[in-house]
Amino acid sequence: MKFKAVIQLRGVCKQFDGKRRVTALEGVDLTIARGEMVSIVGPSGSGKSTLLNLIGGLDRPSAGEIEVDGAALAELDDDGLTRVRRDKIGFIFQFFHLLPTLSCLENVSLPLHLRGWPRKKIEQRARELLDLVKLGARLDHLPDELSGGERQRVAIARALSVFPPVLLADEPTGNLDTSSGIEILRLIRDLHERLGSTILIVTHDAAVAESCARTIHIRDGRIAKDVRR
């Protein structure tokens, strides 16, 4: 059976110029099939977060080609990249990035307002998503009224707001205690099974990495190992 690639990298390089030139990624070729759940691991400074940022269109490569769900990122201007991030990619960050003055419902609703959805439809979708992450009883709570695990659940609901084909998670359990981290990992796996999204997780947590069917090992800006379970 031939699987359709949803993420494709060919010869991707990324250099940062400062007092000296730093090569973060060098000649990366990578194919991720639709529906895969993949962890990306490696030492600090190995290039794994840079790789995630390039796939997410948050930065541009110095060389090479990146395609996400049929969109060739190098061919897009800034507005085009914004549309890809809005329509095709959900982001889950280590530090949640919730707006502190907005309720759970309002934080999850925000991306949908940016899409110009009718208010009634936005509220219905946001409520459904908060129910999905088991926070249907916390709609009106502000982020500082929630635990770390609950905040990450809100962030995950927000990332799912448009049911994007790709979810990118950068250390999603890194700012949580062990119990909350296990809970969030269980939630991500459950959502993967339910929604069939393609999920990439950058992590230092061996349990998170091993929970994925595939692990990409990055070292010195290159793919050192690609393990399938």
Global structural class: alpha/beta
Instruction: Give the tally of structural domains.
Output: 1
* Shape category: globular
Which residue ranges are poorly predicted, with pLDDT under 50 across at least 5 consecutive positions?
none
Strand tally is 10
Q: How far is the first residue's CA from the last residue's CA?
A: 18 Å
Order of helices and strands: EEEHEEHEHHHEHEHEE
CATH topology: Rossmann fold
**Sheet with the most strands?**
6 strands, mixed
Mean pLDDT: 88
Assembly type:
single chain
Going by CATH, the architecture would be 3-Layer(aba) Sandwich
CATH class category name: Alpha Beta
* Range of strand content: 25-35%
Physical arrangement of strands within the biggest beta sheet: 6-7-8-3-9-10
Number of helices: 7
Question: What is the helix content?
Answer: 25-40%
For this structure, what is the CATH homologous superfamily?
A: P-loop containing nucleotide triphosphate hydrolases
How would you portray this structure in words?
With 229 residues, this protein is α/β, with parallel strands linked by helices. It has a single domain, classed as Rossmann fold (3-Layer(aba) Sandwich), CATH 3.40.50.300. 34% of the residues lie in helices and 29% in strands. It has 7 helices and 10 strands. The protein has helices at 48-55, 78-88, 104-114, 119-132, 148-159, 178-195, 206-210; strands at 5-17, 21-33, 37-41, 63-68, 71-72, 89-92, 166-170, 198-202, 214-219, 222-228. Strands 6-7-8-3-9-10 form a 6-stranded mixed beta sheet. Strands 2-1-4-5 form a 4-stranded antiparallel beta sheet, with helices on one face. Strand 7 (166-170), helix 6 and strand 8 form a beta-alpha-beta unit. The mean pLDDT is 88.
